[in-house]
């Protein structure tokens, strides 16, 4: 049995984008997950939407003030299963139903890496292969963009929140 991923989506307004992101997540994710949504005090109907549709979600946390994305993510991650932490921005649209399987497989197979992310690339990057996986690397980038990323438990255990 696969261990579910804990997906945390932080919201702050942007109701239309939040709805699209949630719908695409449920429509296009095969891998088991628990969705935790932390709302940073939205004022555009997002909170009402989340409360009306709470049955879709593992947890909904409504903050009384905007705590920022990092603190809100940490609050969400502290409430779910601890094997795979996924940051999923509320403007991400999932199109491939294997997206989470791919991230989890990379995390399991490439134990020397600590953070895995999906991105849309506008240019070709050099690729290299490791353990049968083709990896992409931007030679000008020394960081990982986090719009849709996975941190395995081993990394979290080392660095914490």
Folded structure, characterized:
About 4% of the residues have low confidence. The two termini are 27 Å apart. The strands form two sheets. Strands 3-2-1-4-8-5 form a six-stranded mixed beta sheet, with helices on both faces. The protein has a two-stranded antiparallel ribbon with strand order 6-7. It is of the alpha/beta class. It is globular and about 40 Å long.
- Treating each run of at least 4 consecutive H or I residues as one helix, how many helices? 5
Strand order of the largest sheet: 3-2-1-4-8-5
Distance between the termini: 27 Å
Strand content: 15-25%
Shape: globular
Order of helices and strands: EHEHEHEHEEEEH
Count of strand segments: 8
CA radius of gyration is 16 Å
> Main β-sheet: number of strands, strand sense, barrel status?
6 strands, mixed
Q: If you average the pLDDT, what whole number results? A: 84
Indicate the structural class.
alpha/beta
Spans with pLDDT under 50 lasting ≥5 residues?
121-126
* Share in helix: 25-40%
List keywords for this structure.
two-stranded antiparallel sheet, 161 residues, alpha/beta, 6-stranded mixed beta sheet
Could you write a compact summary of the structure shown?
The chain has 161 residues and is of the alpha/beta class. The chain has helices at residues 15-27, 46-52, 69-77, 99-109, 153-159, and strands spanning 5-11, 33-39, 59-62, 84-88, 116-117, 127-130, 133-136, 148-152.
């Amino acid at each position: 049995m696969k261990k579910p991923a804990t997906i945390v989506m932080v919201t702050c307004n942007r109701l239309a984008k939040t709805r699209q992101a949630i719908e695409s997540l449920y429509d296009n994710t095969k891998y088991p997950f628990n969705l935790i949504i932390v709302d940073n005090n939205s004022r555009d109907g997002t909170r009402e939407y989340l409360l009306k549709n709470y049955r879709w979600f593992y947890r909904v946390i409504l903050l009384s003030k905007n705590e920022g994305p990092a603190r809100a993510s940490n609050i969400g991650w502290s409430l779910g299963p601890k094997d795979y932490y996924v940051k999923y921005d509320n403007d991400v649209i999932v199109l491939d139903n294997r997206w989470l399987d791919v991230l989890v497989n990379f995390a399991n197979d490439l134990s020397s890496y600590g953070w895995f992310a999906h991105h849309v690339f506008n240019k070709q990057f050099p690729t290299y292969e490791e353990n049968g996986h083709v990896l992409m690397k931007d030679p000008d980038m020394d960081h990982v963009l986090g719009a849709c990323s996975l941190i395995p438990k081993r990394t979290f255990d080392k660095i914490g929140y």
